[in-house]
Amino acid sequence: MLDRRRPVLTYIVLTVFLLLVITPFVWMILGSLKTQGELLRVPPTWLPEEPTGDNFRRLFERPFGLYFRNSTVVALAVTLGNLFFSSMFGYALAHLDFPLKRLLFVLVLVCLMIPGLVTFIPQYVLVVNLGLANTIPALILPFLVQPFSVFLMRQFFLGLPRELLEAGRIDGVGEIAIFFRIYLPLAGPAFATLGILTFLGSWNNFLWPLVVSSDESTYTLPVALALISTGQNQTDYGLLLAGATLIVLPILVVFLFFQRHFIQGIASSGIK
Amino acid sequence: MTTTTALGPDAPRPLGPRGRGGPARRRGRRSAAEARAGLLLSLPFVLLFAVFIAWPVVQSMFMSFTDMRISDIRSPFAVNFVGLDNYLTAFRDPVFRRAAANTGVFVLIGVPLTIAAGLAAAVALDRGIGRLRGVFRMGFYTPVITSIVAVAVVWRFLLQAENGLVNTVLGWVGIDGPNWLGDERTALLSLIVMAVWRNFGTSMVIFLAGLQAVDRGLHEAAALDGAGAWQRFRHITLPSIRPTMLFVLVTTSIGYLQFFEEPFVMTSGGPLNATISASMYTYNQFGFGNYGVAGAMAYLTFVVIGIVTLAQFRLMREK
């Protein structure tokens, strides 16, 4: 552009910055392949001298396969639920006129601002009284409806032409069918964004599962790792870093594949 | 904002900019079907929302004026009203005051740093480079998508006093690094740095989108007139991204006012309450079974969030 030197300098600064930002991840993955002896050495080593899969083997001697499955099941259910419920509601808010619509929308917006801790205790009391403590549904139900999802879907449907609705009516398509047969098939990009965001939020969710699950059979990965890292194994860095890698890697892979949707979606939620 | 009062489905009402077209005489019949469809499509969400969000919000308000404890969990309505006692308890509690002060420090330092880092990264990516943009953007965003529990494990390892990477690197230049998380003077600072690392990617992405609104022609004209890069940034870029700035400021502040996970997983609020936050102490009260007090503290945070958000809207609008 106007200045030819600039890009080189920018590249250098950005690269240094990038290295700083990703060092913890590099350190985590390299560390998960080191022996305990090497991890405790002063000064620390960069590359593992004798790479070992032993930390991961020890990790899976515990029921980490089960925790991984729990995390996956919960995240998938929460994601599907969010796509389903908030696309229906989001569409209704965007294109249909019905009683209480304004009030409902304002309520949802207000709830975007409410801190999680405000609802936390009553939700816990509710789950206990429903007899759902220590069950997988308890990890799913409170997250099926999220104000942010509705907001995102509403914004998306507002961006789709209203003529589709008019055309559907003229062709005699029922109101509900207009949504399912005309608008829903167009919601791919919004579903991609919302799906990834929700999956991620659920996968990384930590506090609620920690409180609601007191039995191993319903632990998710973050809960299991948090309990190990504060228990008697808290200095077993090999095991902990292997656990951290197990949580982070699947997300990184998903992110690599979908990063375009991801980033555009977040950006659009901020712009509209 | 006006709320909807008892308007029947057929009552005339403003339709907004996208008012329905079509012959007026068919509107009545259509509206009934439309209203039914709208309600049906909303129903599943609204029901779950009422049970799992709206009702808990109300119940928690109720709870904050009662002496509810963990022993009342099976009969949440068989409790006594205690008026504002829980709120007074919160204000009188020195640990809560400490927690509120820590949260304030965290917000006052963390929010500007996060915004500055995100904006700097966004401007560099937007202007400076063409190729590799995606790589940088993804790298900077990676901390955002990472589980806090995994992050805590890794950062505790990095920040170890004896053989942590940070102190090793500092040792190369002759600095004897402190026990970052174990020292009262550096623990909160360490958590702030970690939070900035974990969150600046979000603001970067939003700024990147906002920067599309900046007029490139104006930049080039100003450059030809001799305006330096900083002047152009200050007088062209910044005013153009005001709405984005407001959005990032508000959402980052709301997030940081609820600062919780970092101290919870990294330091448990220590050493000597140096890193305990308002949300974390609220959670501790829940853990002790003091549900009423916890409810009051949660609502106090909510009120502060509301005030700060309103203030920010005011400030950003006036200039």
Automatic annotation (TrEMBL), chain B:
One of its GO terms (biological process) is transmembrane transport. It comes from the Bacteria. One of its GO terms (cellular component) is plasma membrane. Residues 1-28 are annotated as: Disordered. Coiled coil: none annotated. The keyword Transport applies. Keywords: Cell membrane, Membrane, Transmembrane, Transmembrane helix, Transport. It is a multi-pass membrane protein. PROSITE patterns: ABC_TM1. It is found in: Cell membrane. Residues 1-10 have a biased composition (Low complexity). SUPFAM superfamilies: MetI-like (SSF161098). The chain crosses the membrane at residues 35-58, 105-126, 138-158, 187-211, 241-259, 291-313. Signal peptide: none annotated. Belongs to the binding-protein-dependent transport system permease family. This is ABC transmembrane type-1 domain-containing protein.
